[in-house]
Design goal:
It is built from ten helices and 22 strands. With 476 residues, it is of the alpha+beta class.
Length: 476
């Protein structure tokens, strides 16, 4: 069994209490947990643009004998998704203006804004047990839809115990890009090789030939080594690697601390303090500095230049000095923030960014006219809806001005920040229209009205025992 996206989700289902005739399964870009990490919600924040596009096309049958109805014909009236969703107003307007209550998927999704029993019952990870076939999980580092799925399901299977070899494969791809693109470029990034062909010929085909026909040495790195636990493409250096553990054994947890004057350091700052910024949900921070057409986000937004955001007063920026040696981060990223808000709820978006040197060469030929000197490449970014800081299923309001701790998981990376580059972290409280707007008041957001969306002042505290920081795994 194998499949990509929804078919990958179905293939993963086939692993649970596996049938004895099933010998090899490759779930590729599967949803692992729609309620927390994949298509629907990320840490309580609703992925608005993607879900509106999905659910305008997913319509229920009207009687068993009929084919599914065609997608809803929605006229956006603009090529700018930011403008379209801002004009649409609160999520409560979506049905009245466009969906007309014809999408049960949309209605179910926005009725369950917390990680409640509805979502918990649909998460695959807790049920990934009694798995007997060989498994190859496949995902893309830049998958805007189901990046978390392969990672969560791989770790769940590792925890629960697999009786046959299981391997995680991650490449420099968008959603399903290994099957539809050459994989040599994405957005403004160039990976210097046809990574999709490499995957198909050297990883995917050998996996099935070995496990279905007993021929070849499958995914073995060498004649006398075991099946690799992970086969990963390292962005930054543009190299494939095979590991016998993931995260790699030759790695250690290190901490990047937020410091005064926008500094990011491996050393804990002695002085305490805070940085603050305004957040206005009626003028949210855009998800991209480029035009996002129609109702969706560009599939390659996860590679985009973040300089547009660094220039905004409602975005905090912290960065290191230019690195004097290569730094490779391998594994999940854990933001630990100490924050406060003048409202009773707020989002906090964390973005890890690779800042290129000012003399970095432009592409040749430079068809897009992009300037790569000083490019701020998004490496990983995730939102967190603050009211879920204590429990993803039971939201709590903030007390205005009271510092609170937020600690969450961001999906894995394998990325090398090259010598001469800088490591940057950006913090903001909106990411629109990728994520729906938070009114910054403690209420049920799908029922919010325009007057509920209020400005707030956000603070990020640094220094001392409780100062904000980022935990990363550095490969030696």
């Amino acid at each position: 069994m194998w499949g990509i996206s929804y078919p990958g989700f179905f293939a993963a289902h086939g692993l649970i209490d596996s049938h004895p005739a099933l010998k090899a399964v490759s779930p590729q870009a599967p949803m692992g947990d729609v309620g927390n990490g994949d298509d629907g919600y990320h840490n309580g924040a609703f992925h608005l643009a993607a879900n509106f596009r999905f659910y305008s096309g997913f319509r229920p049958r009207k009687g068993d004998a009929q084919r599914p109805q065609p997608a809803l014909g929605i006229e956006t009236g603009t090529m700018d998704a930011y403008d379209f969703f801002l004009r649409m107003g609160p999520i409560s307007n979506a049905n009245e203006q466009y969906l007309k209550h014809e999408s049960a998927f949309w209605d179910d999704t926005i009725q369950h804004t917390a990680y409640d029993a509805y979502w918990q019952a649909r998460a695959q990870a807790p049920y990934m047990k009694n798995v007997t076939p060989a498994v190859m999980w496949v995902g893309g580092w830049f998958d805007a839809e189901d990046l978390a799925g392969p990672l969560k399901l791989f770790h769940a299977l590792e925890k629960n115990g697999a009786t046959a070899p299981d391997t995680l494969v991650m490449g420099p791809w968008r959603h399903g890009g290994w099957a539809r693109d050459p994989g040599d470029t994405l957005g403004n990034l160039n990976f210097k090789a046809n990574t999709s062909e490499y995957f198909q010929e050297n990883i995917e085909l050998p996996f099935f030939v070995q496990n279905l026909k007993g021929k070849g040495n499958g995914l073995k790195a060498t004649a006398d080594s075991g099946v690799p636990k992970a086969i990963m493409f390292e962005t930054g250096r543009n190299e494939w690697h095979r590991f016998d553990a993931w995260p790699p054994k030759n790695s250690e947890v290190r901490t990047l601390y937020f410091d005064g004057d926008g500094k990011l350091s491996w050393d804990a700052p002695a002085a305490t303090g805070f940085d603050e910024y305004p957040s206005d949900p009626n003028k949210p921070v855009p998800s991209t500095g480029e035009l996002a057409p129609g109702m969706g986000m560009p599939a390659d937004y996860m590679t985009f230049d973040q300089r547009f955001a660094a220039a905004r007063p409602d975005v905090l920026t912290y960065e290191t000095e230019p690195l004097d040696h290569d730094v490779t981060i391998a594994g999940p990223i854990t933001p630990v923030l100490r924050v406060s808000t003048s409202g009773t709820d707020s989002d906090f978006i964390v973005k890890l960014i690779d800042v290129y040197p000012d003399d970095y060469p432009n592409p040749d030929p430079n068809v897009k006219g992009v300037y790569m000197g000083g490019y701020q490449q998004l490496v990983r970014g995730e939102p967190f809806r603050g009211k879920f800081r204590n429990s993803m299923s039971k939201p709590d309001p903030f007390t205005p001005g009271k510092p609170e701790k937020i600690d969450f998981w961001m999906p894995d990376v394998l990325h090398t920040f090259r010598s001469g580059h800088r490591i940057m972290v950006q913090i903001q409280s909106s990411w629109f229209p990728l994520v729906d707007r938070n009114p910054q008041q403690f209420l049920d957001i799908p029922n919010a009205r325009p007057a509920d969306f209020q400005k707030a002042m956000e603070r990020v505290y640094r220094g001392g025992a409780d100062g904000s920081h980022l935990r990363v795994i550095v490969m030696e």
